[in-house]
């Protein structure tokens, strides 16, 4: 299994493309700049199978509909944010100057609970990690030693909780009870900025002391 990080859109939100030896791929959080996603897929000769969303804030969903339609693939999102994609007040796109209100079609499939999932040949563990938003989830690829966490945990930081549905206590509980229990050498792939590890955050993240 291989992955690439693509910072996209006005907030340089990290999209991830996960792909295997069969050249199938999953697209995580396509926040914008559809052409960059397509360029990488074309370069590698990949076949997209699904879009997975860690949560439904506007900077993570900007290219969802164009990618979904272009490749005829389903979109997965946690049920707690089912109505967020089409609601600019909930997805946050109406809160910022210079950002057009964002109306995205509803997800095709909804996550409902923690557990092992198999989607189009990709096996991973879904962790519910709310706090930054009510339906925040993380995707743990155990055999490959990485977890995609959206805006839950960052290098030296944690997700903001001042947006609709955010709760700091809940966020810290998600981090401590779910993420920090993983092996220390697990790579953490966040929604913004660079990659870190569980061990590095245990040792150096001031918000987790």
UniProtKB/TrEMBL annotation:
CDD domains: metallo-hydrolase-like_MBL-fold. Keywords: Hydrolase, Metal-binding, Zinc. GO terms for molecular function: hydrolase activity; metal ion binding. Its cofactor is Zn(2+). The keyword Ribosomal protein does not apply. Transmembrane segments: none annotated. Residues 12-192 form the Metallo-beta-lactamase domain. Pfam families: Lactamase_B. InterPro entries: MBL_Glyoxalase_II (IPR051453), Metallo-B-lactamas (IPR001279), RibonucZ/Hydroxyglut_hydro (IPR036866). This is Metallo-beta-lactamase domain-containing protein. It comes from Domibacillus mangrovi.
């Amino acid at each position: 299994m291989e992955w690439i990080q693509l910072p996209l859109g006005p907030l340089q939100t990290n999209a991830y493309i996960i792909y295997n030896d069969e050249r199938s791929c999953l697209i995580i959080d396509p926040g914008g700049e559809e052409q960059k996603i397509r360029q990488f897929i074309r370069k590698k000769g990949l076949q997209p199978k699904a879009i997975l969303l860690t949560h439904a804030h506007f900077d993570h969903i900007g290219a969802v509909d164009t990618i979904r339609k272009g490749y005829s693939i389903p979109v997965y999102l946690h049920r707690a944010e089912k109505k967020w994609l089409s609601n600019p007040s909930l997805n946050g796109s109406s809160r910022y100057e210079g950002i057009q209100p964002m109306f995205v079609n509803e997800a095709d499939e909804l996550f409902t609970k923690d557990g092992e999932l198999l989607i189009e040949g990709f096996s991973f563990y879904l962790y519910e990690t709310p706090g930054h938003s009510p339906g925040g989830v993380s995707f743990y690829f155990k055999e490959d030693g990485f977890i995609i966490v959206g805006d839950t945990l960052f290098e030296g930081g944690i997700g903001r909780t001042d947006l609709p549905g955010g709760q700091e206590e809940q966020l810290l509980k998600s981090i401590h009870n779910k993420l920090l229990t993983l092996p220390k050498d697990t790579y953490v792939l966040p929604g913004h900025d660079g990659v870190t590890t569980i061990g590095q955050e245990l040792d150096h993240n001031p918000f987790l002391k």
